[in-house]
Amino acid sequence: MSIREKILEILMLTKDPLSVDDIARELDLGPRESREIYNHLEHVARTVRAKYGKTLMMQPPYCRKCGYIFNNLKRPKKPSKCPKCGSEWIEPPRFIIK
């Protein structure tokens, strides 16, 4: 199985949304390789829609300090700083397939 197929399987079988770190742990990937998962998620979203008629859902990242929610992301990623308060204490996005 390719890494995208493994990500797809993990997200289809989970009951709770998973962060990229959670997915990387399931796949036994290191911190560097886990960053690549964000790129794979874009392709997984297209595959899920085309093959299964399902959707990759993203719980948006948010600032743990002030509560700002990053609703306007065009691509799945973890922002580095909060535009409202400047904090770097950001809760990463979480993903699930429904």
Spell out the key features of this protein:
98 residues, alpha+beta, Arc Repressor Mutant, subunit A, 3-stranded antiparallel beta sheet, two-stranded antiparallel ribbon, 4 helices, 5 strands
Present the secondary structure layout.
Blueprint: H1 3-13, E1 18-19, H2 20-27, H3 31-35, H4 37-52, E2 56-59, E3 62-63, E4 90-91, E5 94-97
Antiparallel strand pairs: 1-5, 2-5, 3-4
Number of domains: 1
Instruction: Estimate the mean pLDDT confidence.
Output: 93
Tell me, briefly, the overall form.
Answer: globular
User: How many strand segments?
Assistant: 5
Can you walk through the features of this model?
The chain has a single domain, classed as Arc Repressor Mutant, subunit A, CATH 1.10.10. Helix content is 41%, strand content 14%. The radius of gyration is 14 Å and the shape is globular.
Q: How would you concisely characterize the structure shown here?
A:
This protein is an alpha+beta fold and 98 residues long.
